[in-house]
Amino acid sequence: MSSSSSIDQPNVITCKAMVAWEAGKDLVMEEVEVSPPQPLEIRVKVICTSLCRTDITAWESQAIFPRIFGHEASGIVESVGEGVTEFVKGDHVLTVFTGECKTCKHCESKKSNMCQVLGLERRGVMHSDQGTRFSVKGKPVYHYCAVSSFSEYTVVHSGCAVKVSPQAPLEKICLLSCGVAAGLGAAWNVADISEGSIVVIFGLGTVGLAVAQGAKLRGASQIIGVDINPEKYEKAKCFGVTDFLNPNEYNEPIQQVIKRISGGGTDYSFECIGNTGMVTTALQSCCDGWGLTVTLGVPKTNPEIASHYSAFLSGKTLKGSLFGGWKPKSDLPSLVNKYMNREIQVDEFITHNLPFEDINKAFTLMREGKCLRCVIHMPN
Predict the structure, then answer these.
(1) Are 181 and 323 in contact (CB under 8 A)?
(2) Bridge partners for 196 per DSSP
(3) Range of the domain at 316
(4) Are both 28 and 140 inside the same structural domain?
(5) Is the predicted pLDDT of residue 300 greater than 90, yes or no?
(6) Which of 4, 12, 115, 272 is found 20 to 30 A from 293 (Cα to Cα)?
(7) pLDDT reported for residue 2
(8) Rounded to 5 degrees, what are φ and ψ at 83?
(9) Structural domain contains residue 339
(10) 339-377, pLDDT tens digit by residue?
(11) How far apart are CA 68 and CA 336, in angstroms?
């Protein structure tokens, strides 16, 4: 028994990873050592990972380096740590940047997806022991959102992975581990858009267009898209946007234009840019009495939101949204099934497919506004 159990014990893996050594500088392909999974962790062979704007925001501004970014990913379980019963080697999984322990107060509540044990990890370490599973030449390399998918192999807490059907294409559904799911959930779970309503969306990137898709599927009568990039309009129409507004083309505040074309303000406003000033504009764009504004973007600067109290006296509501309100383990499998049944669009968000070594090109494309999602394909 002892010899077979020792054979089964996972060892350190040496593989390739794209390491960020300093803010805003190109990622560097490095040989990294990936530790075996610790108790309640799994080690995953990453198959595909897509670049999310939040990765770029953190890469440009955060001080924790060296670091392996990436959090929107799909892969196959390579090994499991002690105490893991939910996964076995060979399982197909999505990684998630916020987990679900299923036992904390928030996980047990139907009102929240903010797990108190496996929530958003900001310090560059693992939830369980505050350590890192990556090193280069013996020196620690830090994690991002406890996922770090810009590596051929990564280690995640078993509560931050979701088992999916082996029939689901990993090179497509990786988008459901963050951006597309976040937008759909904001429309369905957070705003609960009603049929016949009027919606405005600020920012027509992946998240904004996923909100538009969610609004369209709920039967919204008018979906107004606001973006300063006119090249996005044709793509936006595919996801249900009916009106396109470029604020640079108007001599009046864009919220006044929106109120005019919506007959007094929209039922729902979504801020998908990560600009706290735009949250105020979104609030001013929705109608008195029941207008609801949902903010989804992660700001690079000026994190405080300022708004006049009269907006709230008039009955408007401002809500935040993390991952669209989805509980990842409980809810993501049904989203994957919706994709498999062609009830939701995912493929249409993928504008580029790139090999792992071209990941810096993906960063450039997204910074220049030339892509929705670049899917990065790992070597076989």
Answers:
(1) yes
(2) none
(3) 181-321
(4) yes
(5) no
(6) 115
(7) 36
(8) 85, -5
(9) no
(10) 999 999 999 999 999 999 999 999 999 999 899 999 999
(11) 27
Half-sphere exposure of 187 (CA within 13 A, CB side): 29
For the chain, how many helices (H) and strands (E)?
A: 12, 17
Longest Cα–Cα distance in the chain: 78
| Alpha-carbon gap, residue 139 to 307, rounded angstroms | 46
pLDDT score of 57: 86
pLDDT tens, position by position, 186-222: 999 999 999 999 999 999 999 999 999 999 999 999 9
SS3 content of the chain, % helix, strand, coil (to 5): 30, 25, 45
Same domain, 166 and 221: no
| 292 CB neighbour count, 10 Å cutoff | 22
pTM: 0.94
| The two three-digit tokens of residue 307, written as one number | 């708004």
Same domain, 283 and 261: yes
171 and 24 housed in the same domain: yes
User: Residue 100 in contact with residue 327, Cβ under 8 Å?
Assistant: yes
Distance CA 129, CA 345 (A): 38
Domain total in the chain: 2
How many residues are present in the chain? Answer: 380
189 and 207, same domain (yes or no): yes
pLDDT the model gives residue 8: 67
In a domain, 5, yes or no: no
Q: Name the amino acid, one letter, at 209.
A: L
